[in-house]
């Protein structure tokens, strides 16, 4: 507790002694009681102010504070610093954007929760894989002495490096113990499988022991200070750790050092072909989003038993209704092109609404697998796959079954733009109950999509194309706009007949789009 508050507390606690030890008149006693009450209220208020702290900051000194990497989602372990919106020494107010953080899904803004000054930036813009809760900046209040920011930043960096070294040492010790167990087990098994040989003489024993010791010394790299993951990558790639210069604390070799290592090229011989002027390939480092997509979809294909059901849908009435609606909206906009574009319905808006109607009729498809139970949802929160420069992401249009086409269209456009800009918040792409992937606008006629767990189904939409279909007229045929849709479903959650019923309900809704208006 600060010195001023401590003094106030002592005065408050000693008031009874002062009253008992001194002769006070009856007129003074009420004043003392009032003083005690006022002082007590002030002290409680001061204590409350001390207890309140920023969500992502904690005190390093009496004035300056450390600002740590926030967790933008429950599963986030690290992230990147896309940019700082404030400069060192610059003041900020509540609600100001301090920085942008890159996660595996999007780039998100971090707003200030109170007024202050950005004293020192520790994690610079462009930093990758910054652990959650690690110190990224030093902040203070206006009027604070910022001269100690550098010392606090250095202290925070040393603490972070020490914690990292300790964690990696524990992991190394664990792997070493496991490796020793495996080696001992393998050696024992090897000895048991080999025939017994005559025991060598003492002279031979000494010679063998000496030779073995020399061989172990030649292959021993335990003296090299490297992280466990750096050792593993180097071993897999056949890179000698002795040739790598470490950039970590105290010269420790870290993962980035191994990945950036380029062995010295051997001197070309006269018979070697001349090197090509241009490489025939290019290696692109994996982004955080691409790593997440790879991990989740690999897990899905390996652990989720997919099955597929396809159906053809006549889209003529949807096309006609969409044309009428968009023409009416354009006329109502009175030449305002931006307003007309914003209110324009897409085919995907109709598809999402039809999917929500089908989910209401066959709710078992609107479910998720949770290992010991299956959760069936009562709302239709539909994820829509959006392609971005960094990968695929699925923002969610909430409660589609309860909103109209215009609202679906507006929300879809808003979310798609935020996704392409990398500005989605976690709550805008986490927690969907069903997913739609539409590649019809790219001319794709048919494809199957991979389920995004824990969801149990995803709908793949192909392009709409003109076909000749049978007809009851005298001619016996007619031209129709046909779209093919395929649902991928989790066989642990539903059977083929269930998805077939869902597809029938989806087809019926799209082929009678006036039902959307009811």
UniProtKB/TrEMBL annotation:
<feature type="domain" description="Lipoyl-binding">
    <location>
        <begin position="64"/>
        <end position="140"/>
    </location>
</feature>
<dbReference type="InterPro" id="IPR006257">
    <property type="entry name" value="LAT1"/>
</dbReference>
<feature type="compositionally biased region" description="Basic and acidic residues">
    <location>
        <begin position="166"/>
        <end position="191"/>
    </location>
</feature>
<keyword id="KW-0808">Transferase</keyword>
<dbReference type="GO" id="GO:0004742">
    <property type="term" value="F:dihydrolipoyllysine-residue acetyltransferase activity"/>
</dbReference>
<dbReference type="Pfam" id="PF00198">
    <property type="entry name" value="2-oxoacid_dh"/>
</dbReference>
<dbReference type="InterPro" id="IPR036625">
    <property type="entry name" value="E3-bd_dom_sf"/>
</dbReference>
<feature type="region of interest" description="Disordered">
    <location>
        <begin position="263"/>
        <end position="286"/>
    </location>
</feature>
<keyword id="KW-0012">Acyltransferase</keyword>
<dbReference type="InterPro" id="IPR004167">
    <property type="entry name" value="PSBD"/>
</dbReference>
<feature type="domain" description="Peripheral subunit-binding (PSBD)">
    <location>
        <begin position="225"/>
        <end position="262"/>
    </location>
</feature>
<dbReference type="GO" id="GO:0006086">
    <property type="term" value="P:pyruvate decarboxylation to acetyl-CoA"/>
</dbReference>
<dbReference type="GO" id="GO:0045254">
    <property type="term" value="C:pyruvate dehydrogenase complex"/>
</dbReference>
<dbReference type="GO" id="GO:0005739">
    <property type="term" value="C:mitochondrion"/>
</dbReference>
<dbReference type="InterPro" id="IPR023213">
    <property type="entry name" value="CAT-like_dom_sf"/>
</dbReference>
<dbReference type="InterPro" id="IPR000089">
    <property type="entry name" value="Biotin_lipoyl"/>
</dbReference>
<dbReference type="Pfam" id="PF00364">
    <property type="entry name" value="Biotin_lipoyl"/>
</dbReference>
<protein>
    <recommendedName>
        <fullName>Acetyltransferase component of pyruvate dehydrogenase complex</fullName>
        <ecNumber>2.3.1.12</ecNumber>
    </recommendedName>
</protein>
<dbReference type="Pfam" id="PF02817">
    <property type="entry name" value="E3_binding"/>
</dbReference>
<feature type="region of interest" description="Disordered">
    <location>
        <begin position="152"/>
        <end position="221"/>
    </location>
</feature>
<dbReference type="InterPro" id="IPR011053">
    <property type="entry name" value="Single_hybrid_motif"/>
</dbReference>
<dbReference type="InterPro" id="IPR045257">
    <property type="entry name" value="E2/Pdx1"/>
</dbReference>
<comment type="similarity">
    <text>Belongs to the 2-oxoacid dehydrogenase family.</text>
</comment>
<feature type="compositionally biased region" description="Basic and acidic residues">
    <location>
        <begin position="200"/>
        <end position="211"/>
    </location>
</feature>
<dbReference type="InterPro" id="IPR001078">
    <property type="entry name" value="2-oxoacid_DH_actylTfrase"/>
</dbReference>
<comment type="function">
    <text>The pyruvate dehydrogenase complex catalyzes the overall conversion of pyruvate to acetyl-CoA and CO(2).</text>
</comment>
<keyword id="KW-0450">Lipoyl</keyword>
<feature type="compositionally biased region" description="Low complexity">
    <location>
        <begin position="264"/>
        <end position="279"/>
    </location>
</feature>
């Amino acid at each position: 507790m600060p010195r001023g508050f401590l003094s106030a507390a002592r005065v408050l606690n000693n008031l009874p002694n002062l009253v008992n030890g001194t002769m006070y008149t009856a007129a003074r006693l009420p004043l003392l009681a009032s003083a005690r009450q006022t002082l007590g209220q002030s002290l409680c208020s001061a204590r409350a102010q001390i207890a309140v702290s920023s969500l992502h900051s904690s005190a390093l000194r009496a004035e300056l504070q450390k600002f740590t990497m926030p967790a933008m989602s429950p599963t986030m372990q690290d992230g990147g610093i896309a940019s700082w919106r404030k400069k060192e020494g610059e003041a900020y107010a509540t609600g100001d954007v301090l920085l942008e953080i890159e996660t595996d899904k999007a780039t998100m803004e971090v707003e200030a929760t109170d007024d202050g000054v950005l004293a020192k930036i520790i994690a610079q813009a462009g930093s990758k894989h910054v652990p959650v809760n690690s110190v990224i900046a030093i902040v203070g209040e206006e009027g604070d002495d910022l001269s100690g920011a550098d010392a606090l930043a250095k202290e925070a960096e040393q603490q972070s490096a020490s914690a990292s070294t300790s964690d990696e040492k524990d992991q190394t010790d664990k792997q070493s113990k496991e490796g020793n167990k495996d080696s001992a087990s393998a050696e024992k098994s090897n000895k048991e499988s080999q025939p017994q040989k005559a025991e060598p003489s003492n002279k031979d024993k000494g010679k063998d022991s000496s030779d073995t010791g020399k061989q172990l010394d030649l292959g021993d790299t335990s003296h090299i200070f490297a992280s466990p993951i750096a050792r593993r990558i180097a071993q897999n790639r056949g890179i000698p750790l002795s040739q790598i210069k470490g950039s970590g604390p105290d010269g420790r070799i870290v993962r980035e050092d191994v990945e950036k290592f380029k062995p010295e090229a051997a001197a070309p011989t006269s018979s070697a072909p001349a090197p090509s002027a241009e490489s025939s390939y290019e290696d692109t480092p994996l982004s955080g989003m691409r790593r997440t997509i790879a991990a989740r979809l690999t897990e899905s294909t390996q652990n989720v038993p997919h099955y597929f059901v396809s159906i053809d849908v006549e889209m003529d009435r949807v096309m006609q209704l969409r044309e009428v609606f968009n023409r009416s909206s354009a006329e109502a906009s009175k030449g305002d092109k931006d307003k007309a574009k914003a209110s324009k319905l897409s085919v995907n808006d109709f598809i999402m609404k039809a999917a929500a109607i089908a989910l209401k009729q066959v709710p078992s498809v609107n479910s998720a697998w949770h290992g010991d139970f299956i959760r069936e949802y009562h709302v239709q929160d539909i994820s829509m796959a959006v392609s971005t420069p960094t990968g695929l992401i699925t923002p969610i249009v909430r409660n589609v079954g309860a909103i109209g086409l215009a609202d679906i269209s507006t929300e879809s456009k808003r979310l798609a733009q935020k996704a392409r800009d990398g500005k989605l918040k976690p709550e805008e792409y986490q927690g969907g109950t069903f997913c739609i992937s539409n590649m019809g606008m790219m001319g794709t006629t048919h494809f199957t999509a991979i389920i995004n767990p824990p969801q149990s189904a995803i709908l793949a939409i192909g392009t709409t194309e003109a076909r000749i279909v049978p007809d009851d007229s005298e001619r016996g045929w007619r031209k129709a706009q046909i779209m093919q849709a395929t649902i991928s479903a989790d066989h642990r959650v539903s059977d083929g007949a269930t998805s077939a019923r869902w597809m029938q309900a989806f087809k019926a809704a799209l082929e009678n789009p006036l039902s959307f208006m009811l």
